[in-house]
Design goal:
mainly alpha, 137 residues
C-alpha cells in the first residue's frame, strides 16, 4: 500500500500536466481536440492490456510469470521517463527542434492567446499552500 501511495503521489501531476503542456503550443479552440486524444488513449490501451498480460504470463521462464509481466511493462516506462526528462521543454525558447521562424510563429500564437509574449512565471508558494489547505476543494 505504501508503494501504491507513492506511485499515486508521483502520478498526480501527470493528468493536469499534459493539458498544461499542450496549452503552450495550441490555441484554446485547438486544445480540446488534443486533450480528447490524450484522454482517449487510456481506454484504448486498456483494450489490449488484458490480452497482452495474458499472453506474457502464458510462458514458462526461470522467473515467476508476474515478474516477467512487471519487467516487460515497467522497463519501457522507466526508459521513456529518462528520455522525457531530457526532451520535455521548460519554455518554447529552449526548444531545440524549432528553428528561428518556428519559434517566432509559436511566440506570436502565444501573444494571440494570452496577450503577453512572456508566459513562463514562477510558483507562488503562498497561493499553493492556501490551495492545499482549502478543505472545500
Amino acid at each position: 500500500m505504501a508503494l501504491r501511495f507513492f506511485m499515486g503521489l508521483t502520478e498526480a501531476g501527470y493528468g493536469p500536466g499534459i493539458p498544461y503542456l499542450l496549452s503552450f503550443f495550441y490555441l484554446r479552440h485547438e486544445l480540446g481536440f488534443r486533450c480528447g486524444i490524450f484522454l482517449s488513449a487510456a481506454p484504448l490501451t486498456n483494450t489490449f492490456a488484458g490480452a497482452l498480460a495474458y499472453r506474457i504470463t502464458l510462458g514458462h521462464s526461470s522467473i515467476a510469470n508476474w515478474r516477467v509481466l512487471f519487467l516487460i511493462e515497467g522497463l519501457p516506462t522507466i526508459v521513456i521517463a529518462v528520455v522525457a526528462f531530457f526532451f520535455l521543454l521548460d519554455s518554447l525558447e529552449k526548444a531545440r527542434f524549432l528553428d528561428k521562424d518556428d519559434k517566432r510563429i509559436v511566440r506570436f500564437r502565444g501573444v494571440r492567446r494570452v496577450g503577453n509574449s512572456k508566459r513562463m512565471g514562477g510558483i507562488d508558494w503562498k497561493d499553493m499552500g492556501a490551495g492545499l489547505l482549502n478543505l472545500k476543494a
